[in-house]
Design a protein that fits this description.
3 helices; single chain
């Protein structure tokens, strides 16, 4: 599949992106390269390959390794709030914007 300059203009309009006329050719080449990669992927024989719901599909026996949920940075709240204009009970006080 190959796009034309008109296709690029239409895609840009639909995406609400302003592409200057001088850059249309470069964008066209980039989009055609992406579509070429998609065509290559479509050419791969996937007969017998079961679709996955997620890259870490439970049926494949894979699990995401998570690190322990531990604080690794020191508590610097006091230092950060020392330079704030107004603080109360560990919270930054800001002027009311809406009544």
């Amino acid at each position: 599949m190959s796009l034309s300059h008109d296709d690029v203009a239409r895609i840009a309009r639909l995406a609400r992106i302003d592409i200057p006329a001088a850059e249309t050719g470069e964008v066209l080449q980039q989009l055609n390269r992406v579509l070429g990669l998609v065509d290559e992927l479509r050419a791969v024989d996937t007969t017998g390959v079961e679709p996955m719901a997620h890259a870490l599909d439970a049926r494949g026996g894979m699990a995401q390794r998570l690190r322990p949920d531990e604080a690794t940075e020191p508590d610097r709240r006091e230092a950060y709030q020392a330079v704030a204009p107004e603080v109360a009970d560990g919270l930054y006080l800001v002027p009311r914007v809406l009544e």
